[in-house]
Amino acid sequence: MPDTKIISKEEVKCEELFRNKHKRITNGRFEVSLPFHEDSSVLRQSKVNALKRLRHLERRFQRDPKLQIQYISFMDEYQVYKYEMTIFFPKKTH
């Protein structure tokens, strides 16, 4: 029996996305778009849910200050190691 792996349509799309959209950035790492299952415009509608989640976390931090310290430390580490970056969007003018 041949050692062939059958890949899904989503895996094929991910491979194509990497082949066609990746680039090497100045620090030597690769940058590639995220493989969304749905249209990425759906994410714009998630602001309400994100704000609810934020408020929930803030209430938990009030009840558990140690958790807040651990969370802040975790997020600081992400910034130190450049796992994340702040993205600024232009303000909408109506």
Can you write the helix and strand succession as a string? HEEHH
Instruction: Please give the share of residues in helix.
Output: 40-55%
Spatial sequence of strands, sheet with the most strands:
1-2
Shape, principal axes of CA atoms? extended
First-last Cα distance = 63 Å
Structural class: mainly alpha
> What is the overall pLDDT average?
82
Total number of domains: 2
Q: Which descriptors would you attach to this protein?
A:
two-stranded antiparallel sheet, 2 strands, extended, 94 residues, mainly alpha, 4% strand
How would you describe this protein?
- A two-stranded antiparallel ribbon has the order 1-2.
- Strand 1 (23-24) and strand 2 form a beta hairpin.
- Helix 2 packs across helix 3 (65-80).
- It has two domains: 8-37, no CATH class; 46-87, no CATH class.
- By secondary structure, it is mostly helical.
- Helices cover 49% and strands 4% of the residues.
Briefly, what is this?
The protein is mainly α. It contains three helices and two strands, in the order H-E-E-H-H. Helix 2 packs across helix 3.
Task: Write the topology of this structure.
Blueprint: H1 9-21, E1 23-24, E2 30-31, H2 47-63, H3 65-80
Antiparallel strand pairs: 1-2
Helix pairs in contact: 2-3
